[in-house]
TrEMBL record:
InterPro entries: SsuA/THI5. This is ABC transporter substrate-binding protein. Residues 34-223 form the SsuA/THI5-like domain. It comes from the Bacteria. It holds the Pfam family NMT1.
Length: 288
């Protein structure tokens, strides 16, 4: 059997795993081989798992919730430690917005469907506002920094080298860090049939994820060069951004499932999800 792992550049652990031999070494004693399927948009992870394109993948907090809402039978397998400095909601450095209520009626650039949707929806909800009615969400792009600076957009949620560069230039300031609002974990999940049929493979892959994180923590400059090559941006900015990550993989816990349930409830009330989701259903059933 060949186990296929989905990899998109915005998930650093999976990116580094795909460039190292930890997964191959983890699966070899089980008589299995590994292949990597590279794709560009982490939001599509649930659908690609459901279609059998790959067996195992990882994203931020929102895509697995959306996958459940869309009817994909996924199982959480592991999560990163919280990443409080991974991303931020930025506003113009000299602009008028000083708290979340200042976004009302404005446009916010973000990765729609990513963890950034969870961040914005929860921040608005906590302030008595709604993602669905009180702001206009729009897809972030290469012009987001300029549009924020000139006042065309009110807020911009970003991460990685883009965040480091925006703060370095002084054109933007942080309204909220991701950790001010959400745990902002990297989340790893698989198709239920795969996870329940071969739990030993899932366990081996989780071990390999931690080994990839250990490599990134020990080789920050090389990890930054890889990120810059895959996603653009300056290597120095990437080194700053990656230094903010915990590089630690943790098990799925009741506390994590509660975090996800809170997110699912907020996203459903905001109209982002087509139906309610019970995140506790996305766990593997044990034999017997």
């Amino acid at each position: 059997m060949t186990v296929t792992i989905g990899v998109h550049a915005n998930n650093p652990t999976l990116t580094y795993l795909s460039r190292l031999d930890h997964a191959q070494r983890a699966l070899a004693p089980l008589g299995e081989s590994v292949a990597f399927h590279h794709y560009t948009n982490g939001v599509t992870t649930g659908a690609l798992l459901g279609e059998g394109v790959f067996d195992f993948g990882g994203t931020g907090s929102t895509p697995p919730i959306s996958a459940q809402a869309d009817g994909h039978d996924i199982v959480y397998t592991a999560v990163s430690a919280p990443r409080p400095d991974h991303g931020a909601l930025l506003v113009a450095a000299d602009g008028p917005v000083h708290d979340i209520t200042g976004l009302k009626g404005g446009t916010v650039h973000l990765g729609i469907g990513s963890w950034q949707t969870h961040l914005l929806a929860k921040a608005l909800h906590s302030a008595g506002l709604s993602y669905g009615t009180d702001i206009t969400p729009a897809a972030a792009g290469p012009d987001s920094a300029r549009l924020l600076a000139d006042g065309t957009v009110t807020g911009w949620i970003t991460q990685g080298a883009d965040l480091a560069a925006a703060l370095r230039t002084g054109d933007a300031r942080v309204l909220l860090r991701s950790g001010d609002v959400i745990a902002d974990r990297s989340v790893f999940f698989a198709r239920r049939d795969f996870a329940e049929r071969r739990p030993e493979i899932v366990a081996a892959l989780v071990t390999a994820l931690q080994q990839a994180d250990d490599w990134a923590a020990a080789h920050p400059r090389e990890a930054a060069r890889i990120a810059a090559g895959d996603l653009g941006g300056a290597t120095d900015d990437w080194e700053s951004a990656l230094a903010a990550l915990p590089w630690r993989v943790e098990p799925v816990t009741e506390a994590f499932l509660a975090e996800q349930q809170e997110a699912a409830d907020i996203l459903h009330r905001a109209g982002f999800l087509s139906r309610p989701v019970t995140t506790a259903h996305a766990v593997a059933r044990t034999a017997g």
